[in-house]
Amino acid sequence: MASRSSVVSGIGAPGRSWGRMVAMTDPKRGERPASTGPRRADAVANRAKVVAAARTAFAAEGLSVSLDEIARRAGVGAGTVHRHFRTKAELVDAVLAAAVEDLVVAANSYAGSDDPGGALREFLVRLVTEGAAAHELAARLQADAGKVEGSVAELDRALGLLLSRARAAGAVGPDLNERDLAAIVAAAHAAYVHAAGGDRAVMLVLRALD
């Protein structure tokens, strides 16, 4: 993450950005080709199938799922997977980037809400609950943050906008800043993953926004 305080840096162990812990939800995302050159439509479609299958597999079973198994679940040959992703690490990077992009899209969609306070709270619930599902992926990417840095920065900006709108509407305290929000998100995540936690625990922690 960048050196400035990040709104999304609060989930997980110190030093981990939220983007490295996001759940691999909505497997239809991640359909961008690996290169910038022209690609045949079937190649693009096959890559999308691989990323979708990997998102589902990694979310449910962790990174132990092999590339050959992902190929089987995607309905493509193993060679197709290896043409697009030389290593599992490259596939993990693609999965994570797509997942963070999903959250950017969602955060931006909340920015048009006529209830800025409710929009901020609803998105923070999604951020926390989805961010709790990919600790193994986060550990894998701990030393390789650059692959998703741009997407995480976009998510920071989108969350910053939600916070600014909520402050302007008087829905949160006027002195609530990004550092405070990161601390609240971290506390909500800890409550969510606790044995006695869950969705209600998240909502209780988010009362700190009031």
UniProtKB/TrEMBL annotation:
Key words, A-Z: DNA-binding, Transcription, Transcription regulation
Segments of the chain annotated as binding DNA: 66-85
InterPro entries: DNA-bd_HTH_TetR-type_CS, Homeodomain-like_sf, HTH-type_TetR-like_transc_reg, HTH_TetR, Tet_transcr_reg_TetR-rel_C_sf, TetR_SbtR-like_C
SUPFAM superfamilies listed in its UniProt record: Homeodomain-like, Tetracyclin repressor-like, C-terminal domain
Domain HTH tetR-type: 44-103
GO terms for MF: DNA-binding transcription factor activity; transcription cis-regulatory region binding
Protein name according to UniProt: TetR/AcrR family transcriptional regulator
Organism: Kribbella albertanoniae
Lineage summary: Bacteria, Bacillati, Actinomycetota, Actinomycetes, Propionibacteriales
